[in-house]
Design brief:
Elements: H1 9-19, H2 29-32, H3 34-38, H4 44-52, H5 58-71, H6 77-88, E1 94-97, H7 101-107, E2 118-121, H8 122-125, H9 132-142, E3 150-153, H10 156-164, E4 168-171, H11 178-181
Parallel strand pairs: 1-2, 3-4
Helix pairs in contact: 1-5, 4-5, 5-7
């Protein structure tokens, strides 16, 4: 919840209407199979078949992927302002995001990605935060020392994992001033 905001109730309503089952609660089938999907171990049809409890075709899976992407695509305008500022100052920016394959493919071309020199999506790496391997992958790809990297995330466990590797990590609290949190 740094670049985007939380899904709105209407987004979940649309997903649940299309699915015909409740999805938003933490114990739902949406979340039960999400790690495999986010890490790219299962494809869209497999994921939505597991979520819906029945085999789905490519059309249904694509429709569900679209609804899923919509709910995670409400951009945090204050963050975009900070990205613009950092980009204008010549900062080298990269994004590390948990995204399933279909969403990563869609968002890779989104206008906000222009601020980033590299995009790291969990489904393309095969790992999700807070696994140390995902941070090691990013460090290797960026060819940078952990102490030279600043990582911002809204989840304490991700910030802690980054810090254990020597990365300067900042916990972002949604709704607060990211520019102030970064000390800009």
């Amino acid at each position: 919840m740094v670049i985007s905001t939380e899904p709105e109730a209407g987004d979940w309503d649309a997903m649940e209407e299309a699915a015909g089952i409740p999805l938003r609660h933490s114990g739902s089938s949406y979340w039960a199979h999400r790690l495999d999907y986010d890490e790219g171990r299962i494809d869209s049809r497999q994921y939505w078949s597991l979520v819906l409890g029945r085999q789905v075709g490519l059309g249904r899976a694509s429709a569900m992927d679209s609804l899923d992407a919509i709910q995670w695509s409400h951009l945090n305008l204050e963050t975009l302002d900070v990205l613009e500022l950092l980009h204008s100052r010549g900062a080298r920016l990269a994004v590390l995001s948990t995204m399933p394959p279909a969403m990563a493919a869609e968002f890779a071309a989104a206008p906000w990605t222009k601020y980033f020199s590299q995009l790291f999506f969990s489904s393309r790496i095969g790992l999700t935060k807070p696994e140390p391997g995902v941070f090691k992958h990013v460090l290797a790809a960026l060819e940078t020392d952990p102490a030279d990297l600043v990582f911002t995330d809204d989840k304490h466990e991700n910030v802690h994992a980054a810090r254990t590797l020597g990365i300067n990590a900042i916990h972002h609290t949604p709704g607060t001033d990211l520019q102030r949190e970064l000390g800009l």
